[in-house]
Design a protein that fits this description.
By secondary structure, the protein is mostly helical. It is 52% helix and 0% strand. It is globular.
Length: 103
């Protein structure tokens, strides 16, 4: 039940603040969304992270998650805990890398 609530909350957040990148390019666009919101008692991140590792919009997704303060699930190849532990400096470095890619 908690997992369903987290997924619902995250999907509402996406709908309310559409990403500024093409979701059709995302490796996860046809994946099961539940893979990105694993059960807290059995955090099996491997499947979701395998999509992220090959995703052409991984950085865009991660920056979107920072910008929109998304706390649930896996975004841009980072788990909830990994994103929480990132310092403002680390987040800035990700944004800088993304901006350099876009040039």
């Amino acid at each position: 039940m908690q997992k369903e609530k987290e997924l619902e909350h995250a999907l509402k957040k996406i709908a309310s603040s559409a990403p500024d990148f093409d979701l059709d390019l995302a490796s996860c666009n046809k994946a099961n969304p539940e893979d990105f919101f694993p059960d807290r008692n059995n955090p099996s991140w491997d499947r979701a992270l395998s999509y992220c590792r090959k995703c052409p919009v991984q950085l865009e997704c991660l920056v979107w998650a920072f910008t929109n303060k998304v706390s649930e699930g896996i975004w841009g190849g980072k788990t909830e805990e990994e994103r929480k532990k990132m310092t403002p400096s680390q987040r800035g470095a990700v944004r800088k890398k993304l901006n350099a890619q876009r040039r």
